[in-house]
Amino acid sequence: MKMNFFKLITFLLCAFCLATGAWAENLEISGSTTVLPVAQKAAEAFMKVHPDINVSVSGGGSGNGIKAIIDGTTDIADASRFIKDSEVAQAVEKGVYPVPFGIAYDCIVPVLHPSNPIKNLTTDQLKKIFEGKIKNWKDVGGPDMQIVVISRDTSSGTYEVWETLVMQKARVFPGALLQASNGAVAQAVAKNKYAIGYVGLSYLNKDLKPIKVGGVEATLETALSNAYPISRVLYMFTKGWPTGATLQFINFVMHPAKGQKIVSEAGYVPLY
Description:
Elements: H1 2-23, E1 25-31, H2 36-49, E2 53-60, H3 62-71, E3 76-79, H4 85-93, E4 98-112, E5 120-121, H5 123-131, E6 148-152, H6 157-165, E7 177-179, H7 182-190, E8 195-200, E9 209-210, E10 212-213, H8 220-224, E11 231-239, H9 244-254, H10 259-265, E12 269-270
Parallel strand pairs: 1-2, 1-3, 5-10, 6-7, 6-8
Antiparallel strand pairs: 3-11, 4-8, 4-9, 4-11, 4-12
C-alpha cells in the first residue's frame, strides 16, 4: 500500500513538471549583433525572475530582425538603427505595426590593430579610406603600408548608420572585406596590423585600438552629449503594442535598476 502511494506521488510530480514545461511561454528575440550582448544578458537575468518564460536570443543583423517582426517569426527585433520607410510600408501591407523602444545609446568606433600609431582620423578621412580613395596609411600619418578595409555587410544596422554618418550615402569600395557581425570585425582587425574596421562600444577590447574621430573620443559622456560624431540609439521593436511575456521583457529592459543596469554593464549608455 505504501509503495503504491509513493508511485502515485511520483506520477503526480512528473505530470506536474511536464505540464509546467508545456505551459511555459516562449519569447523569441533576434536581430542586431550590436544589441545582442544586452539582449543575451537581459534574457539570462529575466529568466531567473520569470522561470516560466523561455527566452531565445539570436543575431543576424538589424534588417533580418525587422524582417522577422514583419513576417511574425520573432517577438522582439533588436536593431541598431531606426526602421526604414520601406520596411514600414512592407509591415503595413501585412497588417503589422512595429513599435520602437529605445533602450540605449551607442558609439560606432573606428578600430585599428594596437601596433598602428594612428590616434585620430576625421570623418572625411574615414570616408575616403572606406571609399578606397586613401589606400596607404602613410597618407594619414601612418606607416607605408596598404590599408586593409574591413566593413559590415548591408543587412547590418551598424553599416547603415556608418553609411549615413560617415560615408554620406557613398558606397564602401569593392575591395573591402565584409563581415557579418561586430565580433567578426573585431577578430579580423585584431589579427591584421594594417586593418581598419568599426564596432559598437561593447565590442572594444585589449586586442583593438579605438581611435578618436575629429579629435573626440568615444565615451559614455560624448555619446550622451552628441559630441561624438558617430553615435546612435539602439532599439527593440515589437509587433504592435507588446503584451504578455513580450511586455514583461520590454519593461524589464527599460527598468533603471534592472535592464538599464545591464545596458551599462554591457558597455553601452543607459537611457534611464
